[in-house]
Structures are given as C-alpha cells and as structure tokens.
Specification:
about 25% helix, ADH-like_C, 19 strands, about 350 residues, Rossmann fold, globular, Quinone Oxidoreductase, Chain A, domain 1, 6-stranded parallel sheet, single chain
Length: about 350
C-alpha cells in the first residue's frame, strides 16, 4: 500500500492508502503543483469523479515488468524520468484523422478512477504511480536537478505555444513578444520564448509575481507591472495570455500589433467570464487568434533541453514544498491565489 492524495470533490483532498497494481511503477521524487490543479480543486473546471491530483511528475523507474508497453525513451529500473501526462487511444476518429484531440484521452492527474470502488495510482500527488500502457517517459540528465526537472511539462506546453506562433509567422518576423501573467505558466512561456530568440516581456498585475521572476534572473527592463502601465496598445507582434483570468483576453487583443498573433494558453477556467471588448479589433488588425490546451509528447525532448540550457534559475520560482503528510497545507495552497509555485516531495519510502 502507498499513500496518495485523492480529490474526492470540489475543495476536498483526502489522504488514502492505495495498492499498486501496475506492471511498471514509478517512484515519485517530486510533483509540481500546477495552476490547473488549483482550478480542479476550486471546481472551476466542473465537478469530477475521484482521482489522484498531479501531472508534473519527476520520478525513478522502480518496477519494469513489461517495458514494451512504455513509449518515449527506452528505460531501465533506476532511471530518473519525466512523465508526459497524456495517453491517446490511437483508435478514435480524431486520433486517426487529426492525430490530436483524442476522444478517449487519459491524463494523469485529471482522469477519474475507472472504478470508484478501486482507487488507482493515477496521479502525481502520491509516493508511487502505476504507469499505464502507452505512457511516455523521458530520461532526465544527471546534471538537471529535480527542482528544475519539474518545470519540463509546463515548458513542453510553452514549446507548443511557440509552435502555434510559427504556424503563422517566422520567428524572424516577430519583433516583440508579450507574455501576460507571471505565474509558472507565463514564466515558463517567457523562458521558452527567449530560448527561441524572441524579444520577450513578462507582464503581471501582481508585484509579488514579478519580484519572483526577477529573483530567477529576469531583468527589470523585461518586466511590466500592469498596475502601473495602462496602455500597451499595438506594441507586440505576438501575445501569449497565461493569466488564468478570462478578462485578460481583451488586454491581449489590445496589445497585439497589426498582423499579430494571439495565443490563449488555455490557462483560464471556462467558468470565468471574458471581459467585453471590441471584436472589430481582430478584423481591423487582421489578428490570428489560436488556442492551446494539450501538451504534445513530441515537445518533451525540447523542453528538457530548455530546462538544461536556460540561464534562468527556475528553481527560485518554487516557494512552497510539502510532504504527503501536509494535506491540510496543500489544500490551503490549492485554494489560494498565492504567487509562486508549490511542489510535493513524498515521504521517503526507504
């Protein structure tokens, strides 16, 4: 039996003992607490059946009885890996025709137990995780510390945002890029945009979020305090909105230059209203607006390279560390809008 934190309903996380039943098992070293975990906990993504939270996972392969069912890198027992959270069925119409938007997609840390009477180790807020067939794992170099490695999943998402931009414009055509929101999602998009050579700025209304970004090495001239800077009209060839607030979409449209690209990072919950704005602006400026919701497995190798290469001190964004015994404190963090990023380091199993 192993300890796991099960979200049994909106605003409720329960520590439980679950039996591992996997042929391949991952011992979890750390799991990042994502903004989406907060949205799930707060009920902003709707009600859900019970499941184990957590999808930003770094761990060690501890059991490997059927390695042929795993995809990604070839691994052995003892390898430290990052887990790509999504598994597509490969059989539905969307998988066959679009190679995306799987109708039966399983996602660690999102998908409810297949049988509520028999809980599964299907999320990262646990000591161990049972790796389902089709899981993709990617080896982490020894030089990359765990505190940096847990940013891989969100940076893989950010690589997808840059890809969306390049589907419309060549990177050489992007003069300035604005990232709205300096939380972990926005910060990771900023780091990724800079890795690709974009002249990026990071904006937020929360001075604490900007202070944390500066602590990681982001220079002040690249930071914009939206509480002090009111007019960003038509200054940026690309805008990526990562605020988690629907009202910021209007700000993204306003900030985009003529012929610009706006990426909605999928960070705001569908229950939040979008602030009214002049839709004519999209036509007048001939903007391209793209959405992003899925993490593509193919982006994980690039994300790991960015995590290793970036000069920014990613680990400085981590402000809270919890063990699985800290379930009450974890719930308080999930319920809050506190700046910074949290992580869960499970209790030692040795």
């Amino acid at each position: 039996m192993t300890t796991a934190l099960i979200m049994t309903g909106t605003g409720t996380v329960v520590a439980s003992e679950i039996e591992s039943r996997g042929e391949n098992v991952l011992e979890i070293l750390q799991t990042g607490i994502c903004g989406t975990d907060r949205h799930l906990y707060q009920g902003k993504l709707g009600e859900s059946e019970p499941f184990v939270l957590g999808h930003e996972v770094v761990g060690i392969i501890r059991k490997l009885d059927n390695p042929k069912t795993l995809l990604g890198d070839r691994v052995e027992v003892g390898d430290r890996v990052i887990l790509a959270p999504g598994i597509n069925c490969g059989l539905c119409n969307n998988c066959i025709l679009k190679k995306a938007f799987c109708e039966n997609r399983f996602v660690y840390g999102f998908t409810p137990f297949s049988d509520s009477k028999h809980p599964e180790l299907n999320g990262g807020f646990a000591q161990f995780l049972d790796l389902k067939p089709g899981s993709k794992v990617f080896k982490v170099k020894e030089a990359i510390e765990d505190d940096r490695a847990i940013f891989t999943e969100i940076i893989a998402c950010a690589v997808g945002a840059v890809e969306k931009i390049t589907e419309v414009k060549q990177l050489s055509q992007i003069g300035k890029c604005l990232i709205l929101g300096a939380g972990a999602a926005g910060y990771s998009n900023f780091v990724t945009a800079e890795h690709y050579g974009l002249h990026a700025s990071l904006a937020d209304i929360n001075p604490e979020a900007l202070r944390l970004a500066e602590k990681t090495g982001v220079s002040r001239e690249k930071l914009i305090n939206l509480a002090e800077t009111q007019d960003l009209s038509e200054q940026f060839d690309a805008v990526i909105d990562c605020t988690g607030h629907g009202e910021a979409f209007a700000k993204a449209i306003q900030a985009a230059a003529k012929g610009g690209v706006v990426i909605e990072f999928g960070a705001f919950a569908p229950t939040q209203p979008v602030k009214a704005f002049d839709f004519w602006e999209i036509c007048r400026k001939e903007l391209t607006v793209r959405g992003l919701s899925e993490t593509l497995d193919r982006n994980f190798p690039m994300a790991l390279r960015i995590v290793e290469a970036t000069p920014y001190r990613l680990e400085q964004l981590l402000t809270k560390s919890f063990s699985l015994a800290d379930s009450q404190a974890i719930e308080q963090f999930l319920a809050s809008a506190e700046a910074g990023k949290g992580k869960i380091v499970p209790l030692s199993t040795t």
